[in-house]
Amino acid sequence: MEKIGFVDLVDFYVKAGDGGNGAATFRREKYVPFGGPDGGDGGDGGFVFLVADPTISTLYHMTEKHKYIAQNGENGRKKKQNGKNGEDLILRVPVGTLVKDYDTGEIIADLDEPGKYCCVARGGKGGRGNTHFKSSINQAPKLAERGVKGEERHIQLELKLLADAGLVGYPNVGKSSIISRISNSKPKIANYHFTTLIPNLGVVAVERAENSFVIADIPGLIKGASQGKGLGNVFLRHVERCSLIVHVVDIAGSEGRDPVQDYYDIRTELEYFSPELARKEEIVIGNKSDLLTQEQLSENIEQFKRATGKEVIPVSAVTGFGLDNLRYIIWDKIKESRKLLAEKIDVEKIDFVKPEPVKIALPDRVDIVVIKNENGEFEVKSNYITTYLEKYKKEAKYMLEDILEILEKNGLDDKLRKAGVKDGDTVWIEGVEFTFKE
Predict the structure, then answer these.
(1) What span, in angstroms and rounded, lies between the C-alpha atoms of 236 and 166?
(2) Which CATH class is domain 165-321?
(3) Residues 6+ apart with CB under 8 A from 374
């Protein structure tokens, strides 16, 4: 049995997949000596999604790695074969997880419902093959686009805790002692009423970290708690969304307590507060069994069962008797509850809707200057395009088709004609040679 630390805040990097490169290939077939371009497009990079999974309740599993990376898109191939898109990376988190950008503090999403998801990093767009660049001035383009880099981000997850099981019972029946023995929680423990002033939360892992659940020690309830008496109904809200109620009674009847009457008093408060809460599955724990002989314990358990119709699981928070068995009993109940939730929300069958992949975008309007050099050739200059290509270096220089389109929209042909260009003249654009054709 493993005890693990409670984790409600984690941060890590995510990296979406890069787009695959387009291919710059040409048909090479028998009887077709000068085949045209046939390079396929690169696949888009995989996206990174977070999804609220009702079958898990802690962020412990997200502490195992510091960086999560989606798959890159495949490169394009000859014969116009496009590369496959990279597989998306789906990271599962508990319901109630708040997703933030670590650097800016921006809230990306609140995954407060089962099956709710968000994209935290978009994959890069795959580059186009050289078939896209064939034109009247370039029948055999040797250029193809490189894929765009996928997004990279530092993510922070904050868990607004929803306990799987809630310990209820009268003050001083040993709830804090029990939770301290079966989980990582270290509550204040003393032999007087109302020691616990806030709910204590503990995480228990059964055999391995994946089989973990959250248990909440709800501060001592008393008769009239649903109307705010004692510590009031504030604490009842903490068990409202639990899937299992773990009801602790003092089976030894120490301090003059009557476990049967205590049980009914607390049940009444639960029913007054919320009939739905009262209908949740319940197990009854008989603590302080170490104060009784085996014969007395058996007699008290039988008497409790006759009066309430409830089975009692005897334990001792002092000696540890029955606590290992208790962990497994609670886990089996929670596991079944999660199974029913998973049948309603099957994360495997969610159709994740993707936003547009990452593209390198150019503006609609750019500056253009045409000059005639000493060789009688024409050079097209654009400060924005030059700066842009320098910024993105190799990746952007393959965006020739996009650059030409933008230049043409901004009156490139008219500027060339005004500069005196004629049919057949050489035109240079960012180091690439073209032949002007009317």
Answers:
(1) 10
(2) alpha beta
(3) none
Q: From CA 185, how far away is CA 86, in angstroms rounded? A: 42
pTM tops 0.85, yes or no: no
CA pair distance 43, 144, nearest whole angstrom: 13
The CA angle 237-240-246, to the nearest 5 degrees, is 110
pLDDT in tens, 264-278: 988 887 787 777 777
Render pLDDT for 149-160 as a digit per residue (tens, 0 to 9).
Answer: 999 999 999 887
CATH superfamily of the domain spanning 369-435: GTP-binding protein OBG, C-terminal domain (3.30.300.350)
Q: How far apart are the C-alpha atoms of 147 and 283, rounded to whole Å? A: 57
Look at the domain 2-161 and name its fold: Spo0b-associated Gtp-binding Protein; Chain: A, (2.70.210)
Please compute, for residue 342, the number of CA atoms within 13 A of its CA located in the half-sphere on the CB side.
14
Sorted by sequence, the CB contacts under 8 Å of residue 269 that are 6+ apart come out as: 221, 223, 224, 225, 226, 236
- The 3-state secondary structure of 96-156 reads CEEEEECCCCCEEEEECCCCCEEEEECCECCCCCHHHHCECCECCCCCCCCCCCCCEEEEE
Distance CA 16, CA 122 (A): 6
